[in-house]
């Protein structure tokens, strides 16, 4: 398995698809990297040479893209800042409720988690 930026990318997939396993690199950036490095888009990640992996790293750093740990840190920092200033979005994040105005009386199960039944108790047996 090739390792780029501390991430094991799948060896059996095409390079453009394998690069997407790096947090912060999506389809457009992956295609751009493949073109800029000059790799055949149909080749698999297991066929990458050490030189090509260094070129991929160089393209990412040269374009100053924030990826992996730095991007994750930035993202969590933004959420913590919103929660610290007690703004509406921060409060919604803290309570694990939808942030962008969706309804919550029905739906929102992904964000709220499984239903928790309240007030239904079993009658005592005699």
Automatic annotation (TrEMBL):
Entry's Gene Ontology BP terms: translation
Region ranges (Disordered): 98-126
Name of the gene encoding the protein in the UniProt record: rpsM
Protein name: Small ribosomal subunit protein uS13
SUPFAM superfamilies from the UniProt entry: S13-like H2TH domain (SSF46946)
PANTHER family, sorted: 30S RIBOSOMAL PROTEIN S13/40S RIBOSOMAL PROTEIN S18, SMALL RIBOSOMAL SUBUNIT PROTEIN US13M
Subunit structure: Part of the 30S ribosomal subunit. Forms a loose heterodimer with protein S19. Forms two bridges to the 50S subunit in the 70S ribosome.
Keyword rRNA-binding: yes
Keyword Ribosomal protein: yes
């Amino acid at each position: 398995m090739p390792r780029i930026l501390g991430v094991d990318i799948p060896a059996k997939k095409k390079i453009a698809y394998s690069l997407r396993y790096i947090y912060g690199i999506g389809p457009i950036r992956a295609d751009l990297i493949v073109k800029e490095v000059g790799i055949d888009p149909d080749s698999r990640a297991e066929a990458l040479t050490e030189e090509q992996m260094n070129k991929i790293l160089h393209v990412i750093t040269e374009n100053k893209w924030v990826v992996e740990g730095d991007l994750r840190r930035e993202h969590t920092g933004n959420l913590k800042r919103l929660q610290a200033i007690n703004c509406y979005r921060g409060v919604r994040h803290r309570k694990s409720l939808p942030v962008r105005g969706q309804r919550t009386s029905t739906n929102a199960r992904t964000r709220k988690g499984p239903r928790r039944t309240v007030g239904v108790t079993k009658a005592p047996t005699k």
